[in-house]
Specification:
The structure is a homodimer of 302-residue chains. The longest helix of chain A is centred in the middle third of the chain and has 20 residues. By secondary structure, the first copy, chain A, is of the alpha/beta class. In chain A, α3 runs parallel beside α4. In chain A, strands 3-2-1-4-5-7-11 form a seven-stranded parallel beta sheet, with helices on both faces. Chain A is built from ten helices and 14 strands. The radius of gyration of chain A is 19 Å and the shape is globular.
Chain lengths: 302, 302
């Protein structure tokens, strides 16, 4: 029986990973402070930042596989937070305890912010320089280096999925897509930048599916979990307005200046994800956005 | 009053750093499991690997400065040990707690193993590629990256002293100089490699002095704490035999093969240490080795 220890199971991507994990024949053991809202999931309550509790929980889980999403990701705060140090430390603890407990295959969540973002373009594993500009990016980058070396020295298989822009049902407030949908469904004005920058957006279920495929594979090292296609922020918002049945004039493009250090294009190369991991392309952005708008509407938004 | 929180104070370099720290006008607060064998040092007993105990100890220390030496360095075991993950995690914890408690200036111990060792030569800060081959080197390298970025985002001053080969009184068994001295003073045969590789050796008191100067400076980033001069292992051992009054024939050069992945020369550029930090050259190697042999002799070796 394959058993996967899942962290961040009550979070945005972690929650979306439960169902496909179970379909793939895994028993899921969630470890964290909050039990996930899902069926047939074992749950071991533990504060991951408590080293002793974490050690005991990992030993109790007895997992062959590890899928680690938990990190400090509060919108607007995570880029420069000292909590990045705490989560880097905890991730190293977790990996060590997992290996001690006999774990064989680990997949950890990385980020496109590990790459240099200047001058932007298509970011490619093992090719685009890793030169993160933020503390968040540095902490993830540093954690990956230690994790990959530890995997080699300890004889464990390890991959590192790099997340780009994620949207979909259950997204927290404070992020572009969720805030825009909520505002537009409410008929409120939504202030934003000119929106000409292109970013790689992937639906949360497709991100989760990519991680599921990666965990089931024996692919090692960094793998972009992305759509492979940069979409302008403007077109994302226009599609949301359309799906919400609202007039485009509600969107105040140019209300905020575009940051001068933001490159015009950030998208992930998906060669590894498609050919090595075998993950299919996710749903088209228009389908995913319509679905997400419907989800919010069903939650009582107009 | 400048107060320095010192870790590793009962260790090889940490212990040597106490006296010069005090001379420089610092009150030393040692934090660790064992009280250092030194006078006028405050001691707060805490297992650094216990996050809660560490947090409390750092808050209680109320230090303006941090000098962090503690790490897992058991000879023969530290290169690939999983303990490197624990100490990387603990170092990030320590730095975070120190900053939370109002700390302003931190100096942490790095290693020449952060640099690529191929093809060898003179390793220079900000110039020689950082491409560590060992888990120990990767863990130190990764820790430095996060520490430096955290210092910038949190407004703290931070430097990173890279240690090369250290010798001197109180060195643990299992290392070249200490083992050779003990064997030769006992009149025992000492088996070694051909000894043609050149390494940068610095007396522990001079290493400690370099760290003291670095801590008192406002120099930031990586600084080699080295002699600047690679010495052959053969000449080190010949000098030990001479100081011990033993015949060279006791040394079995070539008993062990030289590892094929070991470069012939590893030495540190000391431009930053001399001109920016202002540290004087340490004692000549022959003086330092004679002193070290005398120390072992005074401990009851013949």
């Amino acid at each position: 029986m394959k058993r996967v220890l899942l962290t961040g199971a009550s979070g945005f991507i972690g929650h979306a990973a439960i169902a496909p994990r179970q379909r793939a024949g895994f028993q899921v053991v969630a470890v964290g402070r909050r039990a996930p809202d899902a069926e047939d999931v074992e749950f071991i309550g533990a504060d991951l930042l408590d080293r002793t509790a974490l050690s005991e929980a990992v030993a109790a889980a007895g997992a062959s596989h590890l899928l680690h999403f938990a990190w400090f990701v509060t919108p607007g705060k995570f880029w420069g937070s000292e909590q990045n140090l705490a989560w880097a430390a905890t991730t190293l603890d977790l990996l060590r305890f997992f290996r001690e407990a006999g774990g064989a295959r680990a997949v950890l969540a990385g980020t496109c912010a590990e790459y240099t973002w200047q001058p932007g373009g298509t970011l490619r594993e093992h090719q685009t320089p890793e030169h993160p500009a933020s503390l968040y990016g540095v902490a993830k980058h540093a954690t990956r280096m230690v994790a990959e070396k530890f995997a080699i020295t300890s004889g464990m298989s390890l991959a590192w999925g790099r997340i780009f822009w994620v949207y979909g049902p259950r997204e927290a407030a404070g992020r572009l897509v969720s805030d825009a949908i909520v505002a537009l469904l409410d008929g409120q004005r939504f202030a934003t930048s000119a929106g000409l920058q292109r970013r790689d957006f992937l639906h949360v279920s497709d991100v989760a599916e990519g991680f599921v495929r990666l965990l089931d594979s024996d692919v090692e090292g960094p793998v972009n979990i992305a759509s492979g296609h940069g979409e302008t922020v403007r077109s994302i918002l226009e599609r949301i307005a359309q799906a919400a049945g609202r007039d485009l004039s509600l969107i105040d493009f140019g209300a905020f200046a575009t940051r001068s250090d933001e490159p015009m294009l950030i998208e992930g190369a998906v060669d590894r994800l498609r050919s090595e991991v075998g993950a299919p392309p996710g749903r088209p952005i228009e389908t995913g956005l319509r679905e997400t708008v419907e989800w919010w509407r069903s939650r009582g938004k107009k």
